[in-house]
Write a structure and sequence with these properties.
The protein has about 250 residues and is of the alpha/beta class. It has a single domain, classed as Rossmann fold (3-Layer(aba) Sandwich), CATH 3.40.50.720. Helices cover about 45% and strands about 15% of the residues. A seven-stranded parallel β-sheet has the order 3-2-1-4-5-6-7, with helices on both faces. Helix 2 links the parallel strand 2 and strand 3. Helix 1 runs parallel beside helix 2 and helix 3 packs parallel to helix 4. The protein starts with 11 loop residues before the first strand and ends in a 7-residue tail after the last strand.
Length: about 250
């Protein structure tokens, strides 16, 4: 049956940045589709997400740490494998943002954003991909890109550079690993109701300008990404490689 192609029963997943927001919604969505899910956040405050997953009858554990640290990235993949027995699905969602004019943008902020939003995606994908190749059963890697994978944005040079890099890294890894049964794809969210957009939503003029351009007429909610995440993590997407799927209420088509 078609519906079975979207099931994740028996699959083991890791979702970074899943203590709240987009990552939390995706983590619970994967569990609803049948997966066991390891959750992650920079601080140990994501236990409530794990509890929701366990209530669904799935295994879950929360691991805290900074994905800007190379050793932690390696440990995060290994701990997922140790806890669940394998890693079948990796969702690279962890991210951060800083806003400032380019001439004032701090070097430390640039370094941190590139490390968290781009370098960690490569490190985690490399470690997960290596484990998937060694196991020989393939796997699914889904990176969270952004509208700024395609557009430059304003006052977010590091974020735009990192998210553009995520889109290209997605394609590069897909080219290498498609023949090994590993699907590497990305989701590019539009303007979503998350911590990253609090400043924009609290600015009446900027919020109005954004809403006027979105054909759907509203900000996206974390739940709007769940269907796409399940699809790209499931057998239903087995012939989808290197794709960046925009979920933006029609923004890019405007």
């Amino acid at each position: 049956m078609i519906i079975d192609a979207f099931r994740l029963t028996g699959k083991n997943a890791l979702v970074t940045g899943s203590s709240r927001g987009l990552g939390a919604a995706i983590a619970v969505g994967l569990a609803e589709a049948g997966a066991n899910v390891i959750c992650h956040g920079r601080s140990p405050d994501g236990q409530s997400v794990c509890e929701k997953i366990r209530e669904l009858g799935r295994k879950s554990l929360f691991l805290s740490g900074n994905v800007a640290d190379a050793q932690f990235c390696s440990d995060l993949i290994q701990k997922t494998i140790d806890e669940l027995g394998s890693i079948d699905i990796l969702i690279n969602n962890a991210g951060t943002i800083r806003r400032a004019p380019a001439v004032e943008f701090a070097q430390n902020d640039w370094d941190e954003i590139i490390a968290i939003n781009l370098t960690s995606v490569f490190r985690l994908s490399q470690a997960a991909g290596r484990a998937m190749i060694q196991r020989g059963n393939g796997g699914k890697i889904v990176n969270i890109a952004s509208l700024l994978s395609f557009q430059g944005g304003v006052f977010v040079p590091a974020y735009a550079a990192a998210k553009a890099g995520v889109a290209q890294l997605t394609k590069a890894l897909a080219n290498e690993w498609a023949a090994k049964g590993i699907n590497v794809n990305a989701i590019a969210p539009g303007y979503m109701v998350t911590d990253n957009t609090t400043a924009l939503r609290n600015d009446p003029q900027r919020s109005r300008q954004i809403l006027e351009r979105i054909p759907a007429g509203r900000w996206g909610e974390p739940c709007d990404l769940v269907g796409a995440a399940v699809y790209l993590s499931s057998p239903a997407s087995d012939y989808v490689h290197g794709h960046v799927l925009t979920i933006d209420g029609g923004w890019l088509g405007r």
